[in-house]
Design brief:
By secondary structure, this protein is an alpha+beta fold. It has 9 helices and 7 strands, in the order H-H-E-E-H-E-H-E-H-H-E-H-E-E-H-H.
Length: 255
């Protein structure tokens, strides 16, 4: 069975290092909402596989679907179609309810506090925000996943088995930083496979306009404030979004 490193072009370049986001700067980027709808990724044809990780893990408030804005949906399809034969794009999370964002933030914050009971609150906040953004429904500064522009993805083979990326999805360790394996000795076959798998995912996503959060090899953005920040765009396109429920439709249309 092929691996990404066996099938990927040897011309894939190293993943460049990027600084962590200055969240105060990110939150000041203007948002010019384009009002794209949220679409369920389960509508997408092969070669996309959808596995709503948080719902499967039983996280409170998580939904059994991965919703993204329409522009993100189309870009993810383009990414999937660009991958080498035998490799598929696996979508793990997209639009996220605020309750889920709060749960993730609180549980990671508490886990770090447990391991470092003497740490000051400022240090705990910084370490938590390395992997989970501050829960915010502020129209001017929403959490990225609340916009439908942030997406968590990885690669899998034709059987749906995830490729080795060196760490698990949402593993809050230094090795989860996207460029981590660019700085290791790649004389071992295992390290080379992980490095090449990450390169394949990173470059396939970047070629379709996504930007990457440097601390998470799985997290990419399109249209939100993080995307504007790392992509050098003058403004973001996506603010906070909500699912279109039957109740909301009735309220809009019944007169």
């Amino acid at each position: 069975m092929p691996t990404a490193s066996a099938t990927a072009s040897t011309a894939l370049t190293a993943i460049p290092g990027q600084p962590s986001p200055d969240w105060s700067t990110v939150s000041r980027i203007a948002i010019q909402e384009c009002h794209e709808r949220l679409l369920p990724m389960s509508l997408a044809p092969s070669p996309i596989v959808v596995f709503p990780a948080y719902a499967r893990l039983g996280i409170p408030g998580a939904i059994p679907e991965c919703f993204v804005r329409e522009g993100v949906y189309r870009a993810l399809l383009a990414v999937a179609r660009s991958l080498p034969e035998g490799i598929k794009l696996l979508v793990l999370d997209g639009w996220r309810p605020w309750r889920v964002q709060q749960y993730l933030f609180d549980t990671l914050h508490e886990a770090i506090r447990h391991q470092h009971p003497q740490a000051e609150e400022a240090e705990l906040l910084t370490r938590t925000r390395e992997f989970v953004s501050l829960p915010s429904r502020d129209p001017a500064a929403p959490s990225p996943h609340l916009t439908g522009g942030a997406v968590d993805v990885t690669l899998c083979d034709d059987d749906g088995i995830p490729l080795d990326m060196g760490t698990l999805f949402d593993e809050a360790v230094p090795a989860s930083h996207t460029d981590h394996y660019e700085h290791l000795d790649t004389s071992s076959t295992e390290h080379r496979h992980v490095r090449d798998n990450r390169r394949l995912l990173y470059h396939a996503m970047r070629q379709q306009g996504f930007t990457n959060l440097p601390s998470e090899w799985w997290h990419f953005d399109l249209g939100d404030q993080l995307w504007a920040h790392y992509g050098g765009h003058p403004h973001a396109r996506y603010g906070p979004a909500e699912l279109d429920t039957i109740e909301n439709r009735w309220r809009r249309h019944i007169r």
